[in-house]
Amino acid sequence: MEQADSCRRVAIEAVTDVEPPALYELIESTLESASMLPGALTLESAGAVAPSETTARNGDEPDDGIITHAAGVQLIYEGLRLTRSLAHEEPWSDGDETDVDGDMEILAADILVARGFYLLARTDAADKAVRTVQAFGREQTHRLDERDDGHAATTRDATLERDVLELAVLAGAAAVDESPSPSLLERADEIAAAVGTSFPPAEPSTAGSESCVSERSLEESTTDRATSVTDS
Fold first, then answer.
1. In 3D, which of 122, 18, 136 has the Cα closest to residue 77?
2. Contact partners, residue 18, CB within 8 Å, separation at least 6
3. DSSP 18-83
4. DSSP code of residue 181
5. Which of 65, 82, 160, 167 has the smallest CB count inside 10 Å?
């Protein structure tokens, strides 16, 4: 999926100046193995609301601005996902205050979110990005009070995926100076309900293509306006 590869490339380019090398390698490996569903949905959303902006480049990479929006969404998600994982695993709870891996991971999470914000700064998606991070903080705080209730905890966790997919739709539309239709936002919610707290694997050959979920859903909801920009 060339578009997903482009999104991954731009996301990695956004962190190339991170030091020390060990921290950069951790961030790079996180992005290399990540599902590109948030970024892919951003690209598809741009094509769905403004097909004339994307079909003219059929077979080519999307505009740099669109890919930058997609990479910003992807970076924010990866940073928050890593933060959530650390909050659940609590790597410092064993009393080892010198847990270097845990320290590196929390630094990586902070950098991923910060670089994602940088890519979306001064765009119409910036406010939604802020609200996504704020909602994540609230949900994870409430989750601490519900840790013994597995269903409630899972529901709290899944808020991240739902909010990120909504951010992806908004960011994609903003990249082409458009607004997403209500049906497009509703479809993002449906995709979120299907994936839960885990996006499909990055490899299209396993558990179905990550593009299949979003591509099929967008085409169903936007009819003749839904020209996908993530065709395999």
1. 136
2. 24, 27, 111
3. -SSHHHHHHHHHHHHTS--HHHHHHHHHHHHH-HHHHGGGTTSPPPHHHHHHHHHHHHHHHHHHHH
4. -
5. 65
Question: How many alpha carbons lie under 13 Å from residue 145 in its C-beta half-sphere?
Answer: 4
Q: Is-contact 53 67, C-beta < 8 A?
A: no
DSSP 201: P
* pLDDT tens figures, 65-74: 999 999 999 9
Residue closest to 4 by CA, chosen among 71, 69, 50 = 71
Tokens read off for 64: 């740099």
Phi-psi region of 122 (alpha: psi -120 to 50; beta: other; left: phi over 0): left
Residue 4: name the closest of 160, 204, 189 by CA: 204
What pLDDT is recorded for position 170? 97
> Both tokens of residue 59?
């077979």
**Low-confidence stretches of the chain (pLDDT beneath 70):** 1, 52-62, 90-100, 146-149, 201-232
Retrieve residue 147's tokens.
């840790």
- The pLDDT score that the predictor gives to residue 230 is 35
